[in-house]
Amino acid sequence: MKLTDADNAADGIFFPALEQNMMGAVLINENDEVMFFNPAAEKLWGYKREEVIGNNIDMLIPRDLRPAHPEYIRHNREGGKARVEGMSRELQLEKKDGSKIWTRFALSKVSAEGKVYYLALVRDASVEMAQKEQTRQLIIAVDHLDRPVIVLDPERHIVQCNRAFTEMFGYCISEASGMQPDTLLNIPEFPADNRIRLQQLLWKTARDQDEFLLLTRTGEKIWIKASISPVYDVLAHLQNLVMTFSDITEERQIRQLEGNILAAMCSSPPFHEMGEIICRNIESVLNESHVSLFALRNGMPIHWASSSHSAEVQNAQSWSATIRQRDGAPAGILQIKNLVRSRNQRLYRTRGRYQPAYGRAGAGTGKKPSAY
């Protein structure tokens, strides 16, 4: 076949190909008049071909863009570079009935026989734009969560992190992107299985969680609970993994406090030593604090035990709780003077968890077991 024959054949195929194209095809001539409008374009705009052919392209342009559109075309026809020529972009198309629909269109400039034509190929992008908006809103929501969150790809590389993650660990998305959590995060050598357990959690294919000791970027040691949740598509292919973190440093300290007190009680120390053990352990959890215990005798508080710090803590707030016998009768007072910090609030909120420990503190002293 000669080149001229091929050209003629191509010319004969071109318009039928556009006519049957699944994308809307609109061709305008040198006078900005529509000279081709295929069935897919009819479906998108809601106009019949007969209503459009021969009319100015303005009737297909969204109302808010019409005032500026003639100048854009004139500028391009005179040799200027079109802003959207040769590229694909989103446009909210206005249909015949006034409703709007998101589309993606590509504009091409065609020169033939000294004349300039424009071909626009348009397709419905409603679903992907809705998904894009949903994703945008989800990112905003996640970014404003108090709990740190990261999103991983199937290879466990970080693709997104929220503001809380940056605040907790000190890494922004530009630093974290493309890194695996076990490489990015500062993992101390103790506990010895820290890193291995984190790696095992990362490669789970079902929801799971574990606790780890980590170092922030400033060198602060924190205990965190990390949870991982895989995200699968409709074909059960892994798409992403969502990992969330909770600072459980206070909770771990409280557990340690409970364990120390229970261990001390098992050794059956004298009553006054038990009080000192309680005070010292609370002091180890609450820095810059002074802890005192008082027993009630005839309704009057009598000093039982105190922590090692001086009785005066500068700029401190005082907090106290009544120690009660199991029948509810008051038996003593726990008093803490402390620089109130957010990390200390958890201990105050969970003080009820120590009731059994304080209840057994009076064992072997002739006193009834008590609890606050």
Automatic annotation (TrEMBL):
The alphabetical list of record keywords is:
Hydrolase
Q: Which PROSITE patterns match?
A: PAC, PAS
Which Pfam families does the UniProt record give?
PAS_9
Read off the Gene3D superfamilies from this record: PAS domain (3.30.450.20)
EC number from the UniProt entry:
3.1.4.-, 3.1.4.52
Enzyme class, spelled out: hydrolase
One Gene Ontology term of the molecular function aspect = cyclic-guanylate-specific phosphodiesterase activity
> Which InterPro entries does the annotation name?
Biofilm_reg_signaling, PAC, PAS, PAS-assoc_C, PAS-like_dom_sf
Positions of the PAS domain: 17-64, 134-178
- Annotated ranges, domain PAC: 208-260
**Which PANTHER family has this protein been placed in?**
BIOFILM ARCHITECTURE MAINTENANCE PROTEIN MBAA, DIGUANYLATE CYCLASE DGCP
Name this protein carries in UniProt: Heme-regulated cyclic AMP phosphodiesterase (Direct oxygen sensor protein)
Q: Which gene encodes it?
A: dos_3
